[in-house]
Amino acid sequence: MNDKDELIASFRQQLREALRKCSAQEQEIALLNHEIELLKQKSNLK
User: Which intervals of the chain form a coiled coil (predicted)?
Assistant: First the structure.
């Protein structure tokens, strides 16, 4: 591999990692939003 190919491979790996983190954060946000809705419903029942 030449320097250009190595740089491209490194950027691709960085992009994959960034996308993985973004996906995990989106899932966490969805879970937290769901928990908020459950708490709202629970507080309305009291």
Answer: 1-42
